[in-house]
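agent> call fold_tool(seq_1)
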Amino acid sequence: MRVLGIETSCDETGVAVVDGERGLLSHALYSQVALHAEYGGVVPELASRDHIRKLLPLVRQALDEAGTVPSDLSGVAYTAGPGLLGALLVGAGVARSLAWAWGLPAVAVHHMEGHLLAPMLDADPPDYPFVALLVSGGHTMLVDVQGLGRYRILGESLDDAAGEAFDKTAKLLGLGYPGGPALAKQAEHGDPGRFHFPRPMTDRPGLDFSFSGLKTRALTALRDVHSEQDRADVARAFEEAVVDTLVIKCLRAVEDTGAARLVVAGGVGANRRLRVRLREAAEARDVSVHYPALEFCTDNGAMIALAGMLHLQRGEAEDLTIQARARWGLAV
């Protein structure tokens, strides 16, 4: 089985071809970071228009690189949500139209399920069951995964997602967009003992998150900041607080479920300090930690193609209706 996957949920246009026997055959990605940088964040209308410009050329590129023609395909998968509605409609409309024109089934994929399954692209994928930490600019959640489509939300952010908090705090520090990687880079030069930020919601039972208070703490600390070193110290304290909170909650989820495997996916999953801390903490508890390759931590078409293929293998497909959902729960 061979599937074309299309991702347009936010500001990356991703197209890929995945084969059931040969794995990932091609992966084409266009990022709109430069387009949105001058605004300090994603402008939804501009994102939609750029997806329109870039999507079909990327489809041709992905098919050519995979040595694939439409008659080789078994289906077309697309991100149906959650995300920016206009951006989603571009991808969904193109994908559904291609599937109709080529006489193929179409599969609507949940964006976060794509992230959750991204480590399956690896040559040595994790087995079910596992606990997944999905941590990105739009979502932070812990999920008990028993199998494909069998997901139970253990906890999620009650306000800002971790990636969103990174970006907003980076803006307070005067850093560029996207803010998360810029803040992490500045934090490398920070003194970990200069400031101490709280580890929100770790002093009470449960697996929910809250990161909005850390932005307020950073703003308070910045009132007495005057030098580049001071800003690096604030960045370090903020990053340490977020990472510690994520690690504490992950370990609690693993303990509560008895899971032997932890999957970490989403853009913040590329954070170096988070990876080091989780590896150390998990190894001490005989828990294996699995990540997608760095290029598949952020939004991409490969994870959508893979998720679509797995659903098609179970005989699942969509009718002619074009589905796009700005909000869409993951638990089934």
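agent> call fold_tool(seq_2)
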Amino acid sequence: MALLLLVSTTSWKVEKHFCMGHLVDLAFFVDAQDCGMDLVSESSSETSIDKKSCCDDEVIAIQGQNDVKPSLNDIDVEQQQFLVAYSYSYLGLFTLKETREIPHKKYIPPKIVKDIQLLDDVFLI
């Protein structure tokens, strides 16, 4: 959905430069470079002759949307209830749980001096 919004709101520009009918440069979002063969009209004191250039430029421009605004007025009561329940349950995932105190955490068991099972000849089979 975000990709669709990005593509629809971005302005696109493709510019092509042709020289003698052949594609010389293709540019996206920027101006195409010319081939340097554009003829400048020569003006003399007696006559002014405009020569036709051998180059041609083609521009394809697509204007993107500028007025994208979310409309919250279109949400009905059921959708509002769903959004409230979803946000409450989603935020509930990140609450900290209480830590329980373990009463015997610092208790050190006594050292075994003798092996009682061996003294009493009790073996698990």
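agent> summarizing second result for user.
The two ends are 66 Å apart (CA to CA). The helical segments are 2-9, 77-91, 116-119.
agent> awaiting next instruction.
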